């Protein structure tokens, strides 16, 4: 012993703290081992095992840090310092968890979407079917399936995504979105007659109820900076390389977009078939012989 020091040059008080620390770490490691053995015997699902393993490991780590802090830091000033260090460490270690809880509070308070809404976030789209503390669930649409039909997959999205990604709502504010159907006809076709036929078809009340759309737009304008413009269907005319492009633009509910498009196409094909001077176009190559 030299200058009141003991083994390895440590003061007696420090040596006692080291010994206590080793005992604490060993004790909690034994507890973790025992809990894991019990879990492995009673939990057969691989995912549940993984979740339990992560939860138990995180809990044990936090308890070890707390007990070591109590051993090594004495007095109010040191305890406050330790609490600050511990808080900073937990903030880093639990960054995603804290972000998910903050996202949950944002969803509950600001209501960017609710259960039943159709949204797109982080490059994925679907119908919201559940909202929980750490994540919300989407019934996926699109992807390899045409239009906005369901794929059958359920996506689990962390709540923190609403704070980091752009969220597009299909029906927040009002229940309608714009949809367009391009119809390409040949240059030789009577495009004016074709345009009139398309306008007659899309003006049918079975596809759009203009009064209801205008009412919802006015209601949304009370919450958002939305100007109530023209909401009635319209047909635009454009020239393309292979013919005249007539684009039908109309408002429809997000979940009926594919159904209304099918009904429109069936009527368009039937009406065009009745007129010999209207033909659908497709990419063509034309050659001109100047010698004739």
If you had to describe this structure to a student in words, what would you say it looks like?
The chain is α+β, with helices and mostly antiparallel strands and 292 residues long. The protein folds into 3 domains: 7-93, no CATH class; 113-169, SH3 type barrels (Roll); 177-273, 2-Layer Sandwich (Alpha-Beta Plaits), CATH 3.30.70. Helix content is 47%, strand content 20%. Strands 4-3-2-1-5 form a 5-stranded antiparallel β-sheet. Strands 6-8-7 form a 3-stranded antiparallel β-sheet. Strand 3 (135-141) and strand 4 form a beta hairpin. Helix 1 runs antiparallel to helix 2 (46-72) and helix 6 (191-202) packs across helix 8 (257-273).
Secondary-structure blueprint of this entry?
Elements: H1 12-42, H2 46-72, H3 76-93, H4 95-110, E1 118-121, E2 124-131, E3 135-141, E4 150-158, H5 161-164, E5 167-169, E6 177-185, H6 191-202, H7 210-221, E7 234-240, E8 243-252, H8 257-273
Antiparallel strand pairs: 1-2, 1-5, 2-3, 3-4, 6-8, 7-8
Helix pairs in contact: 1-2, 2-3, 6-8
Provide a short characterization of the protein structure.
This protein is α+β, with helices and mostly antiparallel strands and 292 residues long. Helices cover 47% and strands 20% of the residues.
